[in-house]
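Model it.
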Amino acid sequence: MAAVDRGPHVFPAGLSRLQNRYFNPLVRPLAPYLPGFALLEHRGRKSGTPYTTPVNVVPARGIFIVVLGHGVTDWARNILAAGEAEARTTFRRVRLVDPRIVDPADPDPSLPLLARAAGRGLRLFVADIAG
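Modeled.
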């Protein structure tokens, strides 16, 4: 099976495995209540298994932005394949639609300056917040 291009990333794969195994289980119950964090609810694109993944969110009005410091991960590919997901953030639940990856080589000028700066050299996961 060919490896999927994760794209630019700042964290080594070993750190990603440690984070998934030890850090995420600790943060998962707290993520919806911590500023700057969200809990993504999505399904496996092959298995259909439900997953919850804590992420750091870049603040923006009407859009959901995550800097992909680990590259394009399974959760991002799952949401891209499904075309939607749910996120719990700061005491509210939102529906994410129109997910996309913004590449640093082709930045989106409509994104907030903070998101463009944070994503300089890294891909961004961007989705619209429905309703």
